[in-house]
Write a structure and sequence with these properties.
The chain is α+β, with helices and mostly antiparallel strands. It is built from 6 helices and 14 strands. The protein has one domain (about 1-315). Helices cover about 30% and strands about 40% of the residues.
Length: about 325
């Protein structure tokens, strides 16, 4: 049950973060229009003067900034799909007094198979897998490969149609973000030695969600940093302002749950995940309490070409 909850949590948080991020890439027109209506500029504080060639925050038009970020994110997404990496996840369970009662971790290789990212578990609690667990991990990969290898044309079309439907629903959802928030351009900060524009988003009073998932939006506020040179998002910090429910009784995230995401520039061509951290206080199915910290780190990025035949992947660049 605990592992299923962790997987569900990661997918939900990942979806929430992606929706905010995709707002820059997929709903730029609406977002930019909102920024134009309610622009707020704050000058950089002492020690935050931009580098040569970077426009001061007071001179930046939020509409143009978001438009560039949208274009960068769309191009970035295509390149990111061709990278493999190693992911480490750590789960800390916390009791009612705020003390950590247990810590578990899993490390996985994330490969590109049949054009999709697929995980292979390689370590638990920073120790190599037992022979039994290693066999299970390999069986999981083989099962995926067999499914894709033996997939009928009808099954493939349905899978791709379902994927397209999900993408269209996500686009419709993110279009609401501009209506749900008031945006403020706060200034310029250094992120990993690079100048980044900092934008704050606060729920707009009177906003009424139109889609099922959009009811999360008034319950969160967030800050996002956009690289001043690449116009690519670098960091996202979101916090729950009140309880947020998913489903009738399935899941409720409590106030002050917080999620932090960071990206890094790889091979001077793409921005990829570096770190994700979440502190969640929630209730599952009305009776099960969930109080955890989850931490994800990413490393060893390599660019690959995905093979569409049995046999995995072929390096496109030297390791």
């Amino acid at each position: 049950m605990g592992n299923l909850i962790r997987i569900w949590w990661v997918r939900r948080i990942g979806a929430f973060a992606a929706l905010i991020i995709l707002a820059l890439g997929l709903a730029s027109g609406v977002f930019a229009q909102a920024a134009k209506k309610t622009p707020t500029h704050a000058p950089p504080t002492a020690g935050q003067q931009p580098a040569a060639g970077v426009a001061p925050a007071a001179n930046v038009d939020p509409k143009e900034l978001v438009r560039h970020a949208a274009d960068a994110e769309m191009a970035n997404e295509k390149i990111a799909n061709s990278y493999t990496y190693v992911q480490r996840s750590e789960t800390k369970k916390i009791d009612g007094d705020g003390k950590v009662t247990s810590t578990e971790s899993e490390t996985s290789e994330v490969m590109v198979l049949y054009g999709e990212h697929v995980e292979r578990l390689i370590a638990k609690n920073d120790q190599p897998l037992s022979a039994k667990d290693a066999a299970k991990a390999e069986d999981k990969i083989n099962k995926f490969m067999d499914e894709r290898k033996n997939e009928t044309e009808e099954q493939r079309k349905k899978r791709l149609a379902d994927k397209q439907k999900d993408e269209e629903q996500a686009k419709a959802y993110v279009a609401e973000i501009a209506d749900a928030y008031n945006f403020t351009l706060d200034g310029i900060e250094k992120i990993n030695g690079r100048d980044a524009y900092k934008i704050s988003a606060e729920p707009r009073p009177g906003y009424e969600p139109k889609s099922r998932f959009a009811k999360f939006l008034p319950k969160f506020h967030f800050k996002i940093w956009i690289d001043a040179q690449d116009r690519q998002w670098v960091k996202l910090d979101a916090e729950a302002l009140g309880d947020a429910s998913y489903g009738l009784f399935l899941f409720r995230i409590h106030k002050n749950s917080r999620f932090l995401l960071e990206q890094t520039r790889v091979n001077d061509e793409v921005w990829l995940p570096l770190h994700i951290h979440g502190r969640i206080d929630a209730r599952i199915l009305l009776f099960k309490s969930l109080n955890q910290e989850l931490d994800f780190t990413y490393r060893d990025y390599k660019k690959y070409r995905a093979e569409i035949k049995l046999g995995g992947t072929t390096p496109a660049t030297s390791p």
